[in-house]
Design goal:
By secondary structure, the protein is mainly α. The chain has 16 helices and 7 strands. Helix content is 47%, strand content 5%. It has a 3-stranded mixed sheet with strand order 2-3-4, with no helix packed on it.
Length: 342
């Protein structure tokens, strides 16, 4: 069913947040991302309070230091670059190179090229490197996948991107995804560990014209599509409650809107197996035509680094109030699916 979305689109176009206006104009209304007005908007994004908050510790975190400064949830450099990639931050900013280098230093550490065979969970945790259990590498590939996606999207990837992609291809499971579960009997890929590698390999394959990466990304879509993006194959039940709640940002977590957005990015939105998730998305609309943030994974701490805190308030949560970030993504998904009439 097509819906008329003039009201929420008009509201988003009036947002004080330039990233929301960019998302709406490019991904909802389909404006040319190369147009002069869009380039000007991206320059405004670079100067925005949101970006200034995200980069408020760039000098401190860009220096040699600890893993904590790179991956600390959600204020480490890894997450800062991921946010910038989603916000429409201008491509090719060389001032981000020190941040890039710190992220690559961590995720291309020699330990990720060292592997060992383990028979038990205890053995898998005792060994140094990536455990291989019953023919499957147990690795949190969302980390390398997220880095690959962020660096390519931001236009700051260098030749080391090939090493990130090679690791992802090397660790891919037979069903098309990835998992870091060290229980030997685990034989099914994880939604959380598969989504970001799939997206990383997708943008990498497009930029560098790598058929093997594109093939691997297409194989990964089946992990989600077989499950209608949120249901078990065995009995059709919802896999997890959080999978059918709306969040922004998702970080490494998963929900059905994140799955739909990923299918849009990899070009699978017209697959019939997306229909149930699209129906669910339309059911969650508010009376004003927008969508709420029903849950969140962050608290806000702009000045102090603390666990699970972000530099930015992404609109909080309310089941009755429209969240601009979620609404922009939801409208983009519906447009891609042919369910939007702006």
């Amino acid at each position: 069913m097509k819906v008329t979305d003039a009201a929420p689109i008009a509201a988003l176009l009036k947002s004080s947040e330039p990233s929301i206006r960019w998302k709406t104009r490019v991904h909802v209304l389909g404006e040319d991302p190369r147009a002069k007005s869009i380039r000007s908007l991206r320059a405004e994004i670079r100067r925005s309070p949101t970006v200034r908050a995200l980069l408020s510790r760039r000098d401190q975190l860009g220096r040699a230091g600890t893993r904590r400064q790179v991956y600390y949830k959600w204020q480490g450099l890894h997450w800062v670059l991921a946010s910038l990639a989603d916000l429409g931050y201008p491509e090719g900013d060389e001032s981000l190179h020190p941040l890039r280098d710190r992220v690559l230093e961590l995720w291309l550490d020699p330990s990720y090229f060292r592997e060992f065979t383990a028979r038990t969970e205890a053995e898998a945790y005792r060994g140094r490197g990536v455990p291989l259990m019953r023919g499957r590498y147990r690795r949190c590939a969302s980390q390398q996948g997220n880095a690959l996606y962020s660096l390519v999207t931001l236009g700051i990837a260098d030749d080391r991107a090939h090493s990130l992609a090679e690791r992802l291809l090397h660790w891919q499971w037979p069903d098309g995804g990835w998992n870091c579960d060290r229980h030997p009997e685990a034989d099914t890929s994880s939604f959380m560990e598969t989504l970001l590698p799939m997206l990383g390999l997708t943008v990498y394959a497009r930029k560098y014209r790598r058929p093997a990466a594109a093939k691997a990304a297409r194989a990964a879509t089946d992990v989600f599509l077989r499950r209608r993006l949120f249901k078990r194959v065995s009995d059709g039940r919802i896999i997890a409650p959080d999978f059918v709640a709306l969040h922004y940002p998702r970080y490494w977590h998963y929900d059905f809107l994140g799955g739909l957005k990923a299918m849009m990015q990899v070009g699978q939105m017209r697959d019939a197996r997306c229909a149930e998730a699209l129906d669910l998305l339309e059911e969650r609309r508010l009376p004003d035509g927008g969508w709420p943030a029903e849950k969140r994974y962050y608290k806000v701490s702009a000045k102090t680094m603390t666990s699970n805190a972000d530099y930015v308030n992404w609109g909080g949560t309310s089941r009755r109030r429209m969240n601009e970030w979620i609404t922009a993504d939801a409208l983009a998904v519906l447009r891609s699916a042919g369910r939007l009439d702006p």
